[in-house]
Amino acid sequence: MNTVSQTKAKQIRLKRDDLFKDPYGLYKRLRERGPIYKGSILKQPGWFVTGYKETAYILKDSSFFTRIPLPEATEKYSHLKQIQSKMMLYMNKEDHRKLRLLVNKGFTPKQIAGFRPLIEEVVDSLLDELIVKEEFDVVSEFAFPLTSLVIATILGVPEEDRDRFRAWAALLLQSIDFSRSHKTLEASDQLAEELSEYFSSLIAQKRAEPGDDLISMLIKENDCTENELISTFILLVIAGHETTVNLISNTIYTFLKHPEQWKMLNENPTLAGSAIEEVLRFESPTQLTARVAMKDTEVAGKHITCGEQLYLMLGAANRDPDVFDEPDEFLITRKKVPHLSFGLGAHFCLGSTLARLEAQIALSRFSKRVHTYNQTKTEIKWRPLTGFRALEKLRITVQTSN
Ligand code: HEM
């Protein structure tokens, strides 16, 4: 880098809090530096990648390994580290492929389509209750109960345990977010120990009395170690709850801010599918993932040294003006929305079909029954996470269609 651009680089003020307070403003400022920029917004310095082409390339190239679990703590947090190291999200090459192929058997499009009647029934009964109330919180009263019931049914978790999952999932999500504090890690480490015991005993129960669920299916396959099984179930609890809750909540939020698009959807309900793709692009529930370079290489003319961390800003790639016309506009009639919100390559989201189905049904049914809705006077707050776009609460009042 020459002296002029070095001075300029020093001038941009990059703050970690902007990642949740003003992510799109931050991405814009980063993009001004080019598609890839070296900086230290997060605890561990690294390359911040905002370009679509570069993000897609890194996600697909196996010479970049997935991020390392808890790089900042080698000795401490041993329970959490043990759990994370057996999650497929943190595995590479053959170990990853083996586990992924196995778990994927529970997420085929046919299997997921089989959940449609359950999802429709749950959405309808939630809306029956909420519409009568006229005012409610979308996050905790609509999105969470839906996604929680669906993932618990898939896994085969007993009904009486399901309410505890919300707090578990929220804490564990923080532990994989780059904002994690030592306090979070300590609490997550303790939870990881408790959850290992919880799932160990559930596995024993299912061995004795198998059901028609994913836990029983994976036990029957007999191809995973007990630790791999436990880590997989914990990963699915986090992924199944958190990101899909955020997709549904972000959908209702985004339409609230774009009433003309809401009107268009009301007039043409067949747009629900493309509307969800546009929300995924515009307010992606996952904003950032990371990779580690396993050899010296070059990306967009920059030299990357083996061992360096690359932060892939999916939410920025999704607004790259080289790929999307009017990237900062929310337009549900876009013809092509090749967003990167579910990642790409070997780690492409295993639950994307399920997340899309839940969100499409939730939006279709909501828009059929609700004519207009407004935000109550409570302030909109995003959770202080760097990698996820997650509303704390979204209280609305609804007016029905009839
Ligand atoms: C809107 C909802 C969702 C979003 C935005 C999302 C996003 C993502 C992204 C970006 C990745 C790739 C991470 C990387 O490459 O580093 C991923 C991986 C994954 N997702 Fe999702 N996800 C969602 C819902 C779900 C659901 C419902 C499940 C399961 C029930 C799920 C399970 C997984 C798993 C297991 C992986 C790891 C795959 C692997 O490492 O091979 N996700 N997800």
TrEMBL record:
It holds the Pfam family p450. The keyword Iron applies. GO terms for molecular function: heme binding; iron ion binding; monooxygenase activity; oxidoreductase activity, acting on paired donors, with incorporation or reduction of molecular oxygen. InterPro entries: Cyt_P450, Cyt_P450_B, Cyt_P450_CS, Cyt_P450_sf. It comes from the Bacteria. Keywords: Heme, Iron, Metal-binding, Monooxygenase, Oxidoreductase. Belongs to the cytochrome P450 family. This is Cytochrome P450 for pimelic acid formation for biotin biosynthesis. The gene is bioI.
